[in-house]
Fold each of these.
Amino acid sequence: MKNEALFRYLLRLGDDSLILGQRLAEWCGHGPILEEDIAMTNISLDLIGQAMSLLDYAGVIEGKDRNCDKLGLLRYEKEYVNVLLVEQPNGDFGDTIMRQFLFDAFRKPLYERLVNSSDKQLAAIADKSLKETRYHLKHSSEWVIRLGDGTEESHERVQNSLDTLWRYADELFYTDEVEAKLTVEGILPDLSGIKAEWESTVKYVFSEATLEIPVNNWKFEGGRKGRHSEHFGHLLSELQYMQRAYPNMEW
Amino acid sequence: MSTKEWPLWEVFIRSKQGLNHKHVGSLRAADSTMALDNARDVYTRRSEGISIWVVESNYVHANDPADADAYFEPSDTKIFRHPTFYEVHEGIKHM
């Protein structure tokens, strides 16, 4: 393998996009209004497109003749390294929007840094994805504000979404030897400012939305090491069904 | 749960620089911000535009269809209003 750390890093990015894209796709035909149904599936397709670029490139780095389909659809559960946040069930519309917002607020500053990667392919993927992600963040923050600062019922429900999902947010900033090695090699630019930027985005949006950030310090993590929540198996069975039932099928 | 319906908005898209905004359809949204987002998501997915206008349908005023005869028929017989009575000189292109 050309660069194992880069391969593992690309899987992390790619799996986050793929699994969140799959979750959003579950809304297809079930959106609260037609316009929002289309908006969520547009975002889903953006994310799955990003996953394809990232996983295809991971396959090139790995050098074992695996493309985005093989990597995306044929790994076992413990080989997926997405954060737990993105695999959480859709719940109601507020849950989905809150999950999306916490993720988008992280992804935007991340891509803004990755466009400066010394790895040209990664920088190009980040550049294309950044434009999509800016819109995703605009869309999800507007909805968080609308629901939080909306009716009594919408406020209460989206505050519950925040209370439930907050404990998954910290894993977005998980790093280990993979990021450390890539930083030394110059492939990853300095990522240290991302958390502060994320915090300032979420604080601003939650204050506009009149939402309270939960005070508990209980954090969940494990996704980056392949330890997933119980929801993940169900998601994978749907995601992988066609390739498992009809190996190598194409359309 | 509130059963109040969101207002209707008319959507206009400019497909490229130099062309007019053209009416493409309508949608429902709670306010202009949401209307613009929804218009972007519903009407520009296939690169249809570079600029969007939304106008709340309430503010669009239309003529009464019952007056259509009085409004439009009189012009049908005024063919002299079309610039078709000029001879175009040889060598003039793009007419």
Note: Chain A has a mean pLDDT of 96.
Amino acid sequence: MLTRKMFRDMGCHKSQFISIFLMAFLAIFIYTGVGGEWRGLQKSVDEYYETSNLADIFVYGNNITKEQEMAVLNLEGVTDVARRMELSATILNEKTLYLYFVEDDNISKPYIAAGSTFDLNDTEGLWLDKRFADSNGIKVGDTINATVSGLKFSKTVRGLIYFPEQVYESGSDSMQPDFSKFGYAYLSYKAFPVPDYLTYSTLLIKGDVQEGAVAEALDNQYSVYLEKKDHASVSMFQNEVSQHKMMGDIFPVVFLLIALLTMMTTMTRLVSNQRIQIGTLKALGFKKGAITWHYVAYGFALSLFGAVLGLILGPLIIPRLFLPSMSSFYTIPKWQIASNEPVYYAVSIALVLLCTAVSFLACRRHLSETPADTLRPKAPKAIRHGLFERTRLWVKIGFNAQWNIRDATRNKIRSFMAIVGVFGCTTLIVCALSMNDAMNDLKKWQYETVNIYESKLQLDSTITDEQIQNIMTDVSGEAIIEESIEIRYKSNKKTGTLRVTDGTTLIVPTDYRMNPIILPTKGVSITGKVSEALGVKKGEVLEWHIYGDSDWHESVVSAIYREPVNQGITMNREQFEKYGFKWKPTAILSARTVSGKYDGVESITLTSESIKGWDELTEAVFIMVYLLIVAAAILSVVVLYNLGLLSFTEMERSLATLKVMGLKSGNLRNLLLTQNLWFSVIGFAFGIPGGLKLTEIICSYSGESFDFPISSHPRTLLISFVFTFGLSIIVNLMFSSKIRRLNMVEALKAME
Amino acid sequence: MKREIIRFQNVTREYDAGNHVLKALDNVSFAIGEGEFVVILGPSGAGKSTLLNLLGGMDYATSGEIIVNDKNIVGLSDDKLTEYRAEHVGFVFQFYNLIPTLTALENIALTKKIVKNPIDAKEVLELVDLSDHANQFPAQLSGGEQQRVSIARAVAKNPTMLLCDEPTGALDSETGVIVLEMLQKLCRVRGKTVIIVTHNSVLSEAADRVIRIKNGKIREVSKNPAPKAIREVSW
């Protein structure tokens, strides 16, 4: 019979209980949904790395000998080693094919998607990047004609593969992988066109070992030592996963808190409104345990239903939203969804227990009273005059304000919750819009302010000075050098790009506000991100070396500039040559759209295409933005409506009295609206910095190479304002019909 | 009779009670003069409260006319009814219905929000002998005191009539007497029309006019040629 009472009570407090249910559901839905997504990503990639036996350490050098390889293998902790040759070839005119000639395929093995298995004795075969093959219409059995440093050779495609070091294909110039322009291939060392020239540039190591030991084994004859976690493909994917993980962890906590707060207020009120009923039940002889369980069951049942539904729907729906954009960006043979993890059940059980515990806490006080006490009407809550009321201003602010100040201070938890609700809503909406802004600003910064060239011609290493001159004249170009470097300051290291300019006008250095600045001619300039990551300031000395060259150079930092995507060092030609380097451009920039074919040019990147790539890359972010906006709307409507309903129920008698006395409905509505607006103003004021901070945190998870310009756009603030206050007013309007329909006679009849 | 101020003319109020129609008031007619002390008597469920609610503009008559100050209030819109309540009616409730978050004085000052020229709150509070309690909240006042604040609040609007629904129903008899004396004083000294709904027939001795009602019908309307003072009534 008590169960029947429970369901009827729930019917009477529909909206509160629905929102508890909804919040419990959303918490678990998002936790398991986003959790299923990122855990799925993690699982997919972990299994991929595991089965392909991805190398733990990558050592790059010029010529790694058999003796050196053996010396490393003999190190303690090293379980396996392999050498390979890596070089870049040009095929189909200007597409880049990155070639791995392996001595052994024990480490970093390819995943064969089509064709035959890899054969180390195959001298004529090549295993090709599946996505490159697909977007260029290449099939198993086709012949590939490639050019390496002017040398032409052909191979037959034996199979199509995925490669664990190319989960993120960073080969092309833009952020977004372009599978039609860049690919890779896997070959046996026996397939190397000129066996006499075969030298191994890369040593792959499996096992656990320190750089010092490896360096010793190699006699310091190497240029780069890279751990798996720092490998571009691995770290890019890992950043993505941890970004998703963070969202999946933060948002459920917000919903859980709201669920608990709603539970607390609803149950406290339900129980105190039913104290006479409780007393009656006690007097009838119901055991305390039975009555306690009756009330605790509300929290238990609601959170249980919510959690179970979330548990079922979360992993089913959310991962599918992300999959399209994830799989267009990353390459993994099998995408998985972690839909069934023990931690989901643990968290769900914890949530149910928490909600149950909170509903127990909320009703414990009344339940421990004696039946006689419980049956007596509750002593009214004592009110005291606050300090403010003693001031003169108090009399001046008028009835409306007086009423609301008293009501708000008398119901501190409710007021606090309302503010938290609005704060949460504003935070989410500001964060969503700021992320959108940051993406657009970054695009504008990168492609309209910094890179004002339209075409970038990537030069072959074999190009002659004369060819360069000809091209420059032909496209009115500017030559620059761009090299991958490693930067060191004290014990901190970071990879980056070295850019050497020569009167360059098509790349414009800027400050954080995106205003163009002029870099000093002496010393080197570094990007803000490098400065932050290494802790190096203007006037201090850092060290750097070009990948492929083990000599370190010292430079004084003479300026710090900011760039959105490319972090590193910039210096001019004169400075560069002082270190003894020869001026040998790696790229030519042109303001024109260059489409012709030039000898010595490896590839041409058009800015318009890069922008397209960027738009695709940001798709995943926009999904997140929409999710956030929806969450913000649900959150604020649920919280504000509930609290409005609570205060409405509590004030019903007072409102009815006022109405009987002749106060107009409009005045009553304003009475309720005033409080709502106050809370909205406070919540909104805190929500703006909250939202910007949240954006900053989320952006910081997107990796070290990005420098997001986070700022509060007036437009964003305006939209957030309209959104937050609009919802607040809409919720208020929901009550205006209630006020109109308020039954004066009923409301005033009796006390209970 | 002094100037007629209220007239019920064939007033019927029906409620739809599912499968049958319930007549809470059945063809009721009576009149009340200005400045009278009126008691409406009847057992529970007789239709007393319905009558009061109709007169107070909180409910709609199914048929008939209710003339207050020469104006029919039956058929007025919600807004007009609200105006009517504000201008003409001062309510005194059984359970006082003070706003718990406002002090005694503020509860009375509330009338400033409702009518243009209310009587000064302090003055009315003095009228009910509660000047010392001006800054106390309802929860800090006794039941009798709360009811007096409630009366003061009703009077402050300077309404045409005071409508009191079992004003002593929640009070002990001694406190009840004080409250009723207050109401009678307002009638005699200030010339307010006071209408009290009660099931306590003793009160009829103090009234100018007694309206007895049963099963939704008027049983008797009688004028009392020599109404007693509240203290003289044998409780």
Note: Residues 98 and 169 of chain B are 16 Å apart (CA to CA).
